[in-house]
């Protein structure tokens, strides 16, 4: 490293303003400082954090304590820890993994009940369909139509798993058409929990999904939000009743 590079690195690290922290719950305080630096834009996606030895010296903690904080940040999706000569701790761009995993864990822990899941899906889908009617593009429509075509093939082939995956992906594609990342991430999380729920119920006949999809696509192409919402609500309420019947019979 040249003298100029060293000065640039030193200036960058000094600008971050890391502060020594108290020993009690030290890793939480370290993580909080790094989160604050990301929140204020002083650390940006792609930035590499200072080396472990430098960070531990600035925070006045052991390397083990520092690593605990970095692992916590990695689990939260804030940073990525890379190994090797070009490795280190790098700030990540935002991703949906943490939210999706969190909802899945809440479902497995019992904090999210099947009735909460199916009910929330109905409410969320109404918003998604109405906004998508206003914002979806021709590319969005073609992606949705291709999804239905693939699901039709999987259905004819008797491939339950592929059909179920494509049915869930349809909702994610529709959510993406809203151009709102919060809605997209929320739908992704709900559909991931639905995957766990359907897996617990097991395969079942579902002759009404694909006909409903085709009717919905016609309404979306016509930008008829009221008709599209009515179709989606009718379909999901029927599916919800079917799922809950299967779930309740499974528990008996």
From TrEMBL:
<dbReference type="InterPro" id="IPR011711">
    <property type="entry name" value="GntR_C"/>
</dbReference>
<dbReference type="InterPro" id="IPR008920">
    <property type="entry name" value="TF_FadR/GntR_C"/>
</dbReference>
<feature type="domain" description="HTH gntR-type">
    <location>
        <begin position="24"/>
        <end position="94"/>
    </location>
</feature>
<dbReference type="Pfam" id="PF00392">
    <property type="entry name" value="GntR"/>
</dbReference>
<dbReference type="InterPro" id="IPR036388">
    <property type="entry name" value="WH-like_DNA-bd_sf"/>
</dbReference>
<dbReference type="Pfam" id="PF07729">
    <property type="entry name" value="FCD"/>
</dbReference>
<dbReference type="GO" id="GO:0003677">
    <property type="term" value="F:DNA binding"/>
</dbReference>
<dbReference type="InterPro" id="IPR036390">
    <property type="entry name" value="WH_DNA-bd_sf"/>
</dbReference>
<keyword id="KW-0805">Transcription regulation</keyword>
<protein>
    <submittedName>
        <fullName>DNA-binding FadR family transcriptional regulator</fullName>
    </submittedName>
</protein>
<dbReference type="InterPro" id="IPR000524">
    <property type="entry name" value="Tscrpt_reg_HTH_GntR"/>
</dbReference>
<keyword id="KW-0238">DNA-binding</keyword>
<keyword id="KW-0804">Transcription</keyword>
């Amino acid at each position: 490293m040249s003298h100029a590079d060293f000065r640039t690195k030193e200036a960058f690290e000094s600008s971050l303003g890391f502060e020594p922290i108290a020993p009690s719950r030290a890793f939480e305080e370290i993580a909080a400082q790094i989160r604050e630096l990301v929140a204020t834009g002083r650390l940006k996606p792609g930035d590499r954090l200072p080396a472990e030895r430098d960070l531990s010296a600035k925070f006045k903690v052991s390397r083990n304590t520092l690593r605990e904080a970095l692992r916590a940040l990695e689990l939260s999706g804030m940073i990525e820890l890379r190994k090797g000569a070009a490795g280190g701790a790098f700030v990540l761009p935002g991703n949906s993994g943490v939210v999706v995993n969190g909802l899945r864990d809440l479902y497995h822990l019992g904090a999210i009940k099947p009735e909460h899941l199916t009910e929330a899906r109905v409410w969320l889908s109404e918003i998604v369909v109405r906004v998508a009617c206003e914002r979806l593009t021709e590319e969005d429509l073609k992606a949705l139509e291709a999804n239905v075509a693939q699901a039709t093939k999987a259905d004819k082939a008797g491939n339950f798993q592929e059909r179920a995956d494509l049915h869930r992906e349809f909702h994610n594609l529709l959510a993406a058409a809203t151009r709102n990342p919060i809605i997209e991430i929320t739908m992704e999380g709900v559909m991931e929990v639905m995957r766990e729920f359907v897996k617990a119920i097991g395969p079942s006949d579902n002759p009404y999904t694909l006909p409903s999809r085709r009717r919905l696509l016609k309404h979306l192409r016509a930008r008829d939000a009221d008709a599209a919402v009515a179709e989606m609500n009718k379909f999901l309420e029927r599916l919800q009743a079917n799922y809950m019947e299967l779930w309740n019979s499974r528990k008996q």
